Prior knowledge:
The structure holds two protein chains of two kinds.
Chain A: H1 12-34, H2 38-54, H3 65-83, H4 86-97, H5 104-108, H6 112-124, H7 128-138, H8 144-151, H9 155-172, H10 174-180, H11 186-189
Helix pairs in contact in A: 1-2, 1-3, 2-3, 6-9, 7-9, 8-9
Chain B: H1 5-15, H2 23-33, H3 35-52, H4 54-60, H5 63-89, H6 91-101, E1 105-111, H7 117-120, E2 127-133, E3 140-146, E4 152-155, E5 161-164, E6 168-174, E7 180-185, E8 188-191, E9 200-204, E10 207-211, E11 215-218, E12 226-233, E13 235-240, E14 252-254, E15 258-263, E16 267-270, H8 279-289, E17 302-309, H9 310-321, E18 324-327, H10 329-332, E19 336-342, H11 347-358, E20 361-365, E21 368-372
Parallel strand pairs in B: 7-9, 11-13, 18-21
Antiparallel strand pairs in B: 1-8, 1-12, 2-3, 3-6, 4-5, 5-8, 6-7, 9-10, 10-11, 10-13, 12-15, 13-14, 15-16, 17-19, 20-21
Helix pairs in contact in B: 2-3
Amino acid sequence: MPMSFNDTWFDKVAFKELFKKYYPPLCIYCRLKYGFDIYLAEDVVHAAFIKLWETRQTLNPDSSPRAYLYKIVDNLSLNTLRHEKVMQQHAAHLLNTTAEDISETTFNSIDLKELSAAIDIAIAELPEQMRIIFELRKYEGLKYAEIASRLNISVKTVDTQITRAMTKLKEKLSRFLILIIALTVTLLFKK
Amino acid sequence: MEDNNQYDELLVRYLFNEDRAGEKAFVENWLNTSEENRRYFDRLKKAWQLTDIKHDLAYITDEANLEAKWDRLEQHITNEDVEAENTARKPGVYRILIAATVAASLLLVIGLGWKFFINNKPAIPVVQHTEKKKDSPAFVVRHEVNTTGKEKRISLADGSLIVLANNSEVTYREPFTEKRAMTLTGKAYFKVVHDNTRPFIVTSGDISTTDIGTEFTITGFKNTSHIIVRLYEGKVVIKAVDTTNRRMKKDVYLLPGQEFVYGSKTALRTFTLNKQAAPEQLMQQEQAGDNPALPETADKPYFMFNNQLLGDVFDNLAALYNVKIICDKKDVQKIYFTRKYDRTDSLETILKEIGTIHHLTITKKDNAYIISK
């Protein structure tokens, strides 16, 4: 349902509805686009909602709260990067991601619960050893060599298994990739 | 796309930061050779990013968590609204209540050259509240940035009041336990509810101002030409943050009506107290008084005195109106005067006004005015 500031949304009930609808996707958006950890992303989104609440009476009644929220989150995130010296910490990540812009409109159409379930299933469906190796690298942060020595296999096997895991995951999650990718890593690699 | 399979291991290693010598450059080169290569890699990377947020997604879509986050937000906006209502609707009552509970109060910090956010920050002009979780989960760091273009009132949990000027920011940690410490950049007015067990300390640049006993302290700014601490009520002590600071070897204790200027010329001055004015008015008045070198007004239909010694004011008036003004320097020492007059104002009116403000008697004798206490 397309909400606009025209609705009597500025009462608390409507504001809560807005919050429940947009809080999770905004957090994930901020998490992906700016590479913040989820808690920092939550802080930013929290601040964005406060800002929306404080300025509710002065907003153009025809504009969309969704677009406005994404805009505030973008602004606050950039400020955070600029001011909090999270900069250094995230510089590496940004180099890798900012070039591709995550589009707010398509992003918001993703059902996060569906996405969450799809990721869980995709990983769970990997052959067991492959899954274990993948999870050790991804969620335990072990290096290839460490995994190899822990599982008593060769580094080459780890390499192959993780690559296969990634290709499988890519296929299984393909319908979401289109939504999230607004393409172009171009800026980054142009010399 | 099948052709790319041979590169998969390389690309995945690249994503996982497991690339071996020379591989990184190779991959980047490969990506540069065609749009198709980039698209291929991009999909792989997005899949990789999605697995990255697996746990975050579970956490953020959890209904109970969402309810908890809403409660936190609702509490915040409710407090804001109550605060706004209090200041907007019943200013009289509000002020009396504050006056009754304030022991040491009304401290003002000014810094020239405080941050002008507007120039370097295309941010939305708003008051921002940022909360940061610290190691101890009970504490929340509050960071108030005011770029609304006007003063912003902040009521603290202990009953103290901060009026934050435009382009200024203040940071503090809540809840207040051992001490109430804040850092200020820019300008703010503090009305502190005194608490022996929890000193109120404002740090600003090189100096800090503290509320001691029935007193109070304050701080300075970073990278500013000078810092001014003005005391309206109570008592404060000002200290150098760095004890080896050569500009300020001794602590400075202020009395109401005194201001301390920290900078290239450190000085203690007095100013005229105006007890009726609201904090916002006081702040604006100060702003005018902060520019000691105002432009010459000879060609203007008015003239003004800007925080000048009363003795000098009389000398100026005598010259302007071509009369003699006689006063005992002892009666007017340490009195500073700021006021704007039209050139058509009669000298009689002006002197009468000054006399009323500073409790001086004006007597006219021939072509001279005699000022006495």
